[in-house]
Specification:
sigma factor; 2 domains
Length: 168
Amino acid sequence: MTALEFGYQIDNLTSSLKPYALKLTKDGEKANDLLQDTVFKAYSNRDKFQVGTNLKAWMYTIMRNTFITNYQRMVRRNTFIDTTENNHFINSSSVTIENQAKGNFVMNDINMALDGLKDMYKIPFNMYFRGFKYHEIADKLEIPIGTVKNRIHIARKELKKGLQVYAN
């Protein structure tokens, strides 16, 4: 295939590559840049294309790989490493300091919700929570296994209702 034929086929494919570039970048300008990089790489590496294979798939692969490479470069460029003794990531947002106040409030609310349950629901639920199997709870409390399952289900439902403020 001559360079002119190859160029003509690539030009015909650019209209179908544009939506894929938009899907990857979510930005019109960046999509145009990605499309331009893809076409440039395809022209530069046309000797690697095997005639008779799917040119469209080859172009999509080039575009995807170009996008991934550019994204990785951007991530590396935006990560700053503190060269002090501790080697902390400066722009890392995953490092936060929390005190135990929120956890204490949550545990207090959970305990209050548990205390609000009737004993017939609370006892099987606590046993299950501590690791007892349904049949062990049924044997210990001398009630049918179906009743154990039902009471645990009701306890969960009541706890979920009582702790709805933590649903998010």
